[in-house]
Amino acid sequence: MVKHGISVVQWGPELELGIPEIDEQHRRLVEMLNEFYRELEEGHKHEAARRFFEELEQYVNEHFTYEEAFMRKIGFPELERHRKTHELFKKLVKEELKRYESGDEKALREAVALALSWLYTHITRTDRKYAEYLKEKGLL
Ligand SMILES: [Fe+2]
Q1: Which residues surround ligand 1, an ion (CB under 5 A)?
Q2: pTM of the full predicted structure?
Q3: pLDDT at residue number 47
Q4: For 44, how many CA atoms within 13 A lie in the half-sphere containing its CB?
Q5: How many angstroms separate the alpha carbon of residue 126 from the centre of ligand 1?
Q6: How remote is the CA of residue 37 from the centroid of ligand 1, in Å?
């Protein structure tokens, strides 16, 4: 249920990894989703969609690059597997954008669902693994 002024997506401890730069970037995704819902609620569907896709594409490029460099820096052994999930997500976002641009309205809902499931599966499980690795090493 979308209510005015209320965040649809809430930041919570399950999303927090304890790595400040990365937590901040993950919070940005939560904000992007909330901004999208806000704009949608104001009735600006096309603007909301355009901005959402634009920002999401830029976000994944920048954030994934940062995260992969971070994992490389800490010597995280599962980097390659993790990187592949990033590549897949980027590809899916691009495909949804293309579908939306060619007039498929469903692609917008699917892209939002994709971003939400990313938050609650990738960040809470996959990203948590490198945070746990850091903890094991006594670095976090
Ligand atoms: Fe990741």
Answers
A1: 67, 127
A2: 0.92
A3: 93
A4: 11
A5: 6
A6: 24
Going 133 to 137 to 138 to 140, the CA torsion angle's sign is negative
Task: Give residue 110 CA to ligand 1 midpoint distance, Å.
Answer: 20
Can you read off the two tokens belonging to residue 3?
């209510």
Q: How far is the CA of 100 from the centre of ligand 1 (A)?
A: 25
Q: Profile the chain (140 residues) by mean pLDDT over runs of 10 residues.
A: 69 96 97 95 93 96 98 97 98 96 95 95 97 94
| Superfamily for the 38-136 domain | Hemerythrin-like (1.20.120.50)
**Cα(42) to centroid(ligand 1), Å:** 32
Query: How far apart are alpha carbons 123 and 113 in whole angstroms?
Result: 15
C-alpha to C-alpha distance for 41 and 27, rounded to whole angstroms: 21
Domain boundaries, the chain: 38-136
